[in-house]
Amino acid sequence: MNLKSNEGIIVPGKLWSDADLTAFLKLHPRTLAQWRYLGKFKNELPYIKIGKTVRYTDEAVAKFLQSNLSVYSAKD
After folding, report:
1. Can you tell me the distance from the alpha carbon of 17 to that of 54, in angstroms, rounded to the nearest whole number?
2. What is the pTM assigned to this prediction?
3. Strand partners of residue 16
4. Distances 40 to 3, 6, 29, 64 between C-alpha atoms, Å
5. What are 13-38's pLDDT values in tens digits?
6. DSSP letter string over 10-43?
7. Contact by Cβ (8 Å): 67, 44
């Protein structure tokens, strides 16, 4: 995680909202909420929740994308 210290307070880099991440991944707006409810990808896409606000760190998003990367090759 890209953490920056500001007067003893540790602050993560960019935090992604559900709206930011669903737009980036081109998912239905309720998909991430459904995944959280079902516990899907709970280890691959951890989140921060404060009250009703949910955020994802840059590092969590990058790791999620990397862990779901598939490489296909055409068979001759």
Report:
1. 6
2. 0.75
3. 56
4. 27, 34, 16, 12
5. 889 999 999 999 999 999 999 999 99
6. EEES-EE-HHHHHHHHT--TTHHHHHHHHTTTTT
7. yes
